[in-house]
Amino acid sequence: MISRRALLSGAVAAAAAGTLAACGKKESPSSSSSGGTKQITLGFSQVGSESGWRSANTSSVKDAAAAAGINLKFSDAQQKQENQIQAIRDYIAQKVDVISFSPVVSSGWDTVLKEAQAAKIPVILTDRQVDSSQDLWVSLVGSDFEIEGERAAHLLEKVLQGATGAVNIAVLEGTTGSAPATQRAAGFKKVMDASHPDWKIVASQTGDFTRDGGKQVMAAFLTSHPEINVLFAHNDDMALGAIQSIQAAGKKPGTDIKIVSIDGVHDGFVAMAAGQINAIAECNPLLGPQLMDAVKKVLAGQTLEKWIKTQEADFVAADAAAALPNRKY
Ligand code: AHR
User: Fold this and answer.
1) Exposed, middle or buried by CB within 10 Å (0-12, 13-18, 19+), for 219?
2) How far apart are CA 215 and CA 252, in angstroms?
3) How far apart are CA 142 and CA 91, in angstroms?
4) 3-state class of 226 per DSSP?
5) 209 CA: nearest ligand 1 atom
6) Could you write out the three-class secondary structure of 205-216?
């Protein structure tokens, strides 16, 4: 989690990174030797295509780059850190103006981030945080995952209102070592520890943010823990996979097993409107416009906020049908 003190020192680092970029050996992207405007080139390394959220995020980045007139070099890392590191090294070799990436996991970025810094190429994180020193990246455009975990727990409070009896929770975790998996788990636990000593997590395992992962892991949970009556899924896709296993086990999703998830993708809303998911804490994937704005600002030498957050809302099943036609992803 980024602290308030870090945010202040980060703003200074962001300004410095902008200056570095402007003072680097490369020609400033805002002007060319012929007097015209040189197009900005952004190298972007995406995690993969593991979820509906990710597809919406990829479209948002591509559309926003086109709308902003930014030349986007895009690569899909297929959920492998080594592919992301290679993509970043390729962007450094190509002397792009700015590098951005959504880190598949939080650790292991120091070396490549130092290489980008040595090449005077500013790095803007999107979506997920890294645990590297904050002077190695300029800004993060993305959500507060710990708050999302807390919001999911508060949604579960609403879903369980008036219910009696044991609360036996299964958790489908996101990709192990990723910021959303670690921080959503922490946020959910924070609310449990503070207000719900009676809630019990009886099973918790990664489904890697995929529909198939959610399906497989939930099937195993239902065999080993038939007492499960709540599912907290770190994203909608895993909840959607789990719904298939719950039905295959002869149980009714949303009724026999209450389900709370995170994201708010179209298919998640359809399942919520059908009463199969009880509540969703939205995580906004439409980060492209804020990212392009940040790219332009850093190259113009402007100070960026260390953490540029997004707008998000909570939904329960009763809201789903009315909200569905207005969903943008
Ligand atoms: O980092 C954001 C998370 O990554 C989304 O919640 C999930 O769906 C995606 O795979």
Assistant:
1) middle
2) 15
3) 22
4) coil
5) 10
6) EECCCCHHHHHH
Q: Closest ligand 1 atom to the C-alpha of 53?
A: 8
- Domains in the chain and their CATH numbers? 4-142+286-309 (3.40.50.2300), 145-283 (3.40.50.2300)
Query: Torsion-angle region of residue 300: left (phi > 0), alpha (psi -120 to 50) or beta?
Result: alpha
pLDDT in tens, 289-310: 999 999 999 999 999 999 999 9
Mean model confidence pLDDT for the chain? 91
CB hemisphere CA count around 284 (13 angstroms): 17
Give residue-wise pLDDT tens across range 85-112.
Answer: 999 999 999 999 999 999 999 999 999 9
For ligand 1, say whether the CB of 221 is within 6 Å of any of its atoms. no
pLDDT-derived band of residue 29, with 50, 70 and 90 as boundaries? low
